[in-house]
Amino acid sequence: MNPTVSDSFGARVDAALADRNLKLAVERTAGTAEAKRTLAVDAFPDFDAARDRAAAIKDHVVANLGFYLERFEANATAAGAHVHWARTAQEACDIVIRLCKQADAKSVARSKSMLGEEIGLPHALAEAGITRIETDLAEHIIQLSGERPSHIIWPAMHKTREQVSALFRTSHRNPHEEETIAAMAESARRHLREGMLAADVGISGANFLVADTGAVCTVTNEGNAELSLVPPRMHIVTAGIEKIVPSTGHAVHMLRMLSRSATGAPLSQYTTFYTGPKRPGDRDGPEEMHIVLVDNGRTTMREEGLAEMLRCIRCGACMNHCVVFRQIGGHAYGGTYPGPMGAVLTPAFDGLKQSRDLPNACTLNGKCQEVCPVRIPLPTLLRGWREKSWREGLEPASLRSGLALWAWFARRPRLYRAATATALASMRLMGRSGWLSTLPLAGGWTRYRDMPRPPADSFMAQYKKKLGKGPRP
Amino acid sequence: MTRPRVALFVTCLVDLIRPRIGFASIAALEAAGCEVIVPEAQTCCGQPALNSGDRKTAEDLARRTIAALEPYDHVVIPSGSCAATIRVHYPEILEHDASWGPRAAALAARTYEIMAYLDEVRGWKPDGVALPATATYHDSCSGLRELGIKRQPRRLLAAVDGLALRPLDGAETCCGFGGTFCVKYPAISNAIVGEKAAAIDATGADLLLAGDLGCLMNMAGKLHRDGSPVRAFHAIELVAGMGDGPAIGEDA
């Protein structure tokens, strides 16, 4: 069962927790990624210094975004590409649809791009009547099953191998005969190659935009980007403006951080820098290359205290290591980006009112920050959203009044001691043994756990008795 | 070394749920040559407000806590998470305040989690403490990641005669307590602590130890609900020679 975005967070969580297949699938992939990342990072000489450098590169770029974007535009244009600017998701989609129509495109081959998901490009292409073929294997699975990605690196991580096999058997023209990974991959390959070769336009995202060459860098493990972008007449790139790096050297440094953090591999299988369209004498390549640089709230994020989030290189390490993500999977987050990074980004993209649960549904354990290759202080940013939610009155009244009452007493130590003594006495009445299995107002606790029965006297009261006088001021 | 005047910050959970941790803390600190004072004006460090987004209340409680604790040489806390609130977060949230900002920073520099204090500052070991048992240790997140509490409790526990520590699979993985998280999102919290409890059981150890009562209540409460025989203690209880008393949830 797939929870839908229109459900509430609670409903999506309940559906996810009830789905044991999901748990199995997430644990297989994220667990492997966690172990592989640990090995890769341990083998990397001074990974911490490399992280500092990666964070510094991104901070420098984010602080000087205008400079590097203009540089990129000039160099990409000199290489023969056309650069377009989009302030909003709608503008970005409009540009892509207009370009597809100019190219008289019947079908487009798309290489996985989270930015494309973010701006709603699959939907916009469908509305424009353009056939879309997703060429990343996991995105292909998602497209066949009519779902949304549940992870930024493994969009179909929520599905087990067995579920994928069943899906391919009903959707592919010549499906696999044996239920092995190799046979299933071959079935997808046969199916996807037809679409790639027939496409009029190839659409991709960008892992990096290189300012001093005007190149667009993509990273895949399947080579589907190359096969989707080189044969068609036109290549359209949609990329967030924060994807920029100053030079190829900087891009290479970020690539080393990206692949190790994402899958634990030293490098991804395919890394390609596309600089302009086909030149005279080239044997292949698109005749036109268009690059759509998308803001969609990023400059606002920079101005409103989320500049550090723009360091993100979309590796997914934060979600792979997140205890909450590992239990509820990506769909429960309800936005384009799941996990800790999604809990920071979704309120920025979709509004805090609709997504106030996301920054709250986090234990602030700090593991995400510990593994982030660009040192994004995710817990601090999440706490920032909680503060905004509190200021704007979005937090539930029960929490506000409960916390207000507690804080009123906490400011008055003598009354606090009197009130807590009463609370202890009434809690003592709830059970005779050392454990309480029901507790009014704390049903969330005792539904799943027992609560140790509190002592008759608080520490402070016992200490006073022992001393024979009050604790010293 | 001179005899420092140490303020013990008792934490609201220790005060209300398990006073033994407070008494164990006093015993260990005195054995380590400290004069221990329990300032009466303390209540709660304000962490629930801070993590719920109620910044104004968090700042207010921070100022009150600073005023209560700043007359002493050192402040010692039997909780990595409350210690991190004072050491790491007070200076951050009061940075904008010209008079309280520097006071917060000064207090932060003199505030310690108890294991780090005993081990690193006092260079103390629990001589003559014995407990024949097997135990496993959970690294609570705030202490681990905000204060670097990892080897200090293990060094102190290694000095307890007869106590064997067994490694816990996923010892650094959050137990799902997360302060108010466990009551705001109980089903997710339960799924997380369920895995933690299974990992603890799998060690076959007699005892579960940690440095934060919140995490301990969560894990012990789940273990008990699931019928596990593992008994839970705050690590300071063992270090102070109080590991032969009632565990969390056992009648005194």
From TrEMBL, chain A:
Q: Gene3D superfamilies from the xrefs?
A: Alpha-helical ferredoxin, NagB/RpiA/CoA transferase-like
Give the LUD domain ranges. Answer: 69-294
Q: Which residues form the 4Fe-4S ferredoxin-type domain?
A: 308-376
Q: Transmembrane helix as a keyword?
A: no
Do you know which InterPro entries this protein is assigned to? 4Fe4S_Fe-S-bd (IPR017896), FTHF_cligase-like_sf (IPR024185), Helical_ferredxn (IPR009051), LUD_dom (IPR003741), LutB/LldF (IPR004452), NagB/RpiA_transferase-like (IPR037171)
Q: Does the keyword Metal-binding apply?
A: yes
Keywords from the UniProt entry: 4Fe-4S, Electron transport, Iron, Iron-sulfur, Metal-binding, Repeat, Transport
Stored Pfam families: Fer4_8, LUD_dom
Q: Which PANTHER family match?
A: LACTATE UTILIZATION PROTEIN B
Protein name, as recorded: LutB/LldF family L-lactate oxidation iron-sulfur protein
UniProtKB/TrEMBL annotation, chain B:
Residue span, Cysteine-rich domain: 6-87, 136-219
Q: What is this protein called?
A: (Fe-S)-binding protein
